[in-house]
Prior knowledge:
alpha+beta, Methane Monooxygenase Hydroxylase, Chain G, domain 1, Beta Polymerase, domain 2, rod-shaped
Amino acid sequence: MVSKLKQIQYKNIVWIHASDPTDEDLSYLKEKFGFHPLDIADVKSISQRPKLDEYPQYIFMVLLFAWYDRAEREIKAAEIDFFIGEQYLITISDGHLMEIDRFFQECNHHEATRQLYMGDHPVQLLHEIIHRQQVNTFAMLDHISLDIENIERQIFAGNERHMVKEILFIKRNIVGFRRVMQSHKNIIKRLMATRTKFFMPDTMNIYFNNILERSKDIWEILEGHKENIDAFASTNESLISFKLNDIMKILTIISVILIPANLVASLFGMNTQYTPLLHHPLGFYVVLLIMATIMGSLLLWFNRKGWLK
Length: 309
């Protein structure tokens, strides 16, 4: 079986990356670097939350990032597992995050990129990977913002019934996005608080502070999107309810107007001996006139009450 592990070495730093690696690949990494079996098990399974574990020789970290499934129109969680040592960084993704693959190819093909991010310590490389994934996240946030603006236009253009499903799609995506991002701040804080001898040079703290602040910015943008879509959902429901009330009002008025007409028709339809106008040559037209007079009077009364507006 062909290995999915790819490696870049620059000076003393090694970056090993794999998208959806095989069991043989993970066994090789476990034997070569002495990783804990529980960490390998975490890589094989689908994590529901980020985590960070410290060991004497390395740090194991799991981060989740959002990706958009176009087929299902849903934002889902994708995982990157990090093994961080003194002179190596190992990243394992589940194949849904293209940005880390592009960055690996960039480092592989460009000397300047390797020099910039693989110089003295793997923490520089770690920072750039997280930074690029966060920047990619903002593109999805912008798309959600545009979708919300389109919802607003369509609602007030009279298409509120067609927007119910679209609103639910956006709500689901915001909830999924929030689920992905909710633990990022805590993991980054724990990473910055790490005092393992080989990790986190003091010069990098300011860069990870930027990562932390950006995580807070993403969360605040999601909060704003959530409030906006909730407001438009409420507005949409109000407009639909208002139109339904109008329809019910019209149907009720029609029913009330027809009840007296039906009553008159029933009375004169009783084929009894002394039914008025039964044998009158103009009886049919007289009955129609009575019905029209009653219905017209009711319409005038409803109009005066303002119920027809």
